[in-house]
């Protein structure tokens, strides 16, 4: 898979991932998403300060350019990692949770039995199911659907 496709999938995964901090200990991507959002807010002034500081310290232009490129690449690396994570297969430990949430959604008739995906389940599918469960099961007694 090329980097551009991973970047696009990573951007989509950012919008799909739930933002609950209670899940951050289980899913590292929630922390990575928070870091990426913070970097997009604070990185531009940091880059400007870095360039000005290196200019007044009489550091060579090549070092300034390399430092700036490295700082700018950090959020891009995070998005590409998220794209890789989104397409990686779901581990067996989370597959049980996926099946449990899916059964709860089928029992509440939120999704149909024909919509079941049983082959090549990845993290993107799991997060989409988690979002659907957050919207529809949060009011019910099954609100603690993740810890079954």
TrEMBL record:
Main location: membrane
Keywords: Cell inner membrane, Cell membrane, Membrane, Transmembrane, Transmembrane helix
Keyword Transmembrane: yes
Bilayer topology annotation: Multi-pass membrane protein
InterPro entries (alphabetical): UPF0208 (IPR007334)
Transmembrane segments: 62-83
Localisation: Cell inner membrane
Family named by the database record: Belongs to the UPF0208 family.
Protein name (database record): UPF0208 membrane protein YfbV
Lineage per the UniProt record: Bacteria, Pseudomonadati, Pseudomonadota, Gammaproteobacteria, Orbales
